[in-house]
Amino acid sequence: MNQLTLKIILLAILSMNLSSTRALDKKPKHRGKLFFQKNDQSLTPPTLKPQPPSPSAGSPAGRTIETKSTTHSAESPSGNRPDSSSFPNLEPEKCQITHSIETWVQITNQHSPAANQNGVYFISDFRDVPQLFFLKTPKSWPTQISFLPEGISSFKLSPKGTQILLTSQVGGDEQYDLYLWENNSVHPLIVDRNKRIESFEWGPDSKWFLFTSNSRNKIDMDLYRWDLSKGSSELLMALEGNHVVTDISPDGKWALITRFRSVTDSDVLLFNLTTKEILNVTENLGLAASKGGVFTKNSQSIFYISDNNNGIAQAFLTEMKKPKASKLMTSGSDEVEELFMDPSRRKVIFLKNHEGYSKFEGISIDSAGQRKSVLSLPKDDRTVIRGMGFASGSKESPLFFSQTSSLYPAQVFSWQNNHITQWTDSSANILRKECLVQEELIHYPAIDGKKIPAFLYKPKGPITQDQETQTKPIPFLIFIHGGPESQYRPYFNKIFHYFLERGYGILAPNVRGSTGYGREYTLLDNYKLRINSVQDGIDSAKWLIDQRLAHKDKLGVYGGSYGGFMVLSMIENAPDLFSAASESVGISNFVTFLKNTKPYRRALREVEYGPLTDEEFLLSISPITHINKIKTPLLIFHGANDPRVPVTETEQIETALKKKEIPIEVKIFSDEGHGNVKLKNILEQARWMVHFFEKTFAGKKTEGVSSLVKETP
Length: 713
What we know:
Blueprint: H1 3-23, E1 54-55, E2 64-65, H2 101-105, E3 110-116, E4 119-124, E5 131-135, E6 143-144, E7 154-157, E8 164-168, E9 177-182, E10 185-190, E11 197-202, E12 208-213, E13 222-227, E14 232-237, E15 242-248, E16 254-262, E17 265-272, E18 278-280, E19 290-295, E20 301-306, E21 314-319, E22 322-328, E23 335-341, E24 347-354, E25 357-365, E26 371-374, E27 384-390, E28 399-405, E29 408-416, E30 419-422, E31 440-445, E32 451-457, E33 476-480, H3 494-501, E34 505-509, H4 519-522, H5 530-546, E35 555-560, H6 562-573, E36 580-584, H7 590-596, H8 599-609, H9 615-620, E37 634-639, H10 648-660, E38 664-669, H11 679-698
Parallel strand pairs: 33-34, 33-35, 35-36, 36-37, 37-38
Antiparallel strand pairs: 1-2, 3-4, 4-5, 5-6, 7-8, 8-9, 9-10, 11-12, 12-13, 13-14, 15-16, 16-17, 17-18, 19-20, 20-21, 21-22, 23-24, 24-25, 25-26, 27-28, 28-29, 29-30, 31-32, 32-34
Helix pairs in contact: 5-6, 7-8
């Protein structure tokens, strides 16, 4: 063996050792099944204490991660975990706790697939920020397509399947810029920190696209056209309000646009690209939520979604020449969420929402959209779809979709010839489905008798029997979703599973005002009905206590955005009901919120919460007004660049609570907006939150409550 050969061998061994060391780093450059270990004791972080602002390598120039901490406890997240003796009913070799919060957070999701004849593109949080990836064959190693510093927010594959439009933002500001990927490289098209790209849609020949943007006045989303050959945009029509372009006709002469005034008030507009005339296709429907228009193959008819019939969103078909003569294409009590056409426009799929679960329905159609036959599609009663579409440029056009459930993170699948193929599997080496908890759909009674849907999660094994009652109360957390025009759905929730492994229960209610249950339910919290949704949240806690599932001394609540407002309002209106609370990017003062939110959002939010002309009412429902009622220990997170709920909402609640000496911790991320996107910040927030609840509950020793979390001094 010569000297050169020996050096090469030694260098290879050294490289392997370095790779192994990096694989255990708590902030890896990539995350996947090779990174995760079955027993990840080595991933437990050291005690994490609040640090002063310091530069971050992954942040934009001049930005730092700032920590503001006002606390009456010097402790910080430490990663302590209970041993298996805390779970007497679990098989010791099968379902021991082995997963730290770092491991749970770094389990990746793959979603929003778009395919061509060569393979499938999808978004994944496999890197430190979400990026675009490509797979040529199922379960192969993915190829990274985008390398934007802040990752991507969305993308669309061109009809020819050779180009991709991508959006990105800076520091969570949601001022989306537009990029083009072609010839294996990404270059900027529209990059301007003063404007926002709201939507975009490819032309049928892939040589141009339409987009909506507020570049004219920072408020209204106008319609533009971009020609790739010219490299410039043209304003087609100035529009008033929020507009999203949803489709362009196969002949390239028409465009469909949804105009949103609110979630329950929207129209489908037909725009003539030649004459620049615009027609409200759904004007005759009156006050209704109509959206999501797509053209048929002959460019003469339109599919769209509307709830005008009975308050339940269904799919309709109408001829462009006779827009008032719409034909109902779906029925039942489940709402239609989205419409999808295959590239030939001979198949249409209706994605339905069944109490939070996704359901496929589909038909084959003729060129005018008339039904020919029912499509055979995947059937799974307890999953949620996170994006779907047919492959372009492919003779068979298989259906690709991303699917998740309580038992597995979002993964990409395809459906062809009545067969499902799984393309990604990022959690194969770490998750044991038999050890995970699946939700139970329940309906609890509100104070006025209305039944409120919720998803209940009970830990496996540790609920112990009591001679007097069926169960002993256990530590419980209530999660309140944002929106409020949204819905908690039983997807794979990493934070839930962390707590469930440790013997906590979780309840996720869909309080009145949530979507997915029809128009009437969504409207039940608007304007002066706001407090009714807060009461629903309080009633969920009382139901847990009445069922002896929880005790108020180990009962917590957390949520973000509108859910953050709910948390603050719940601990004010029921100050003795909760022992700990955490909120993120929440509203504390509806007057300052509406004044300071981005101008393009204000009109939409006034419909929901009430107009700024009624400041008296807005202040009456604002948590800042009732701050003296709070006595629950509180943890708050916010992004400094939040365009929706400005960080001043957290700053004013912090100032007020400091005066009361209420235990409060506040952490502000200087390089994030309305929720965290960067892995380092997602990890940091998760560590703080789980430790906050663990240390608070550990200090509560209540007779008759199962103490399932190992308490540390």
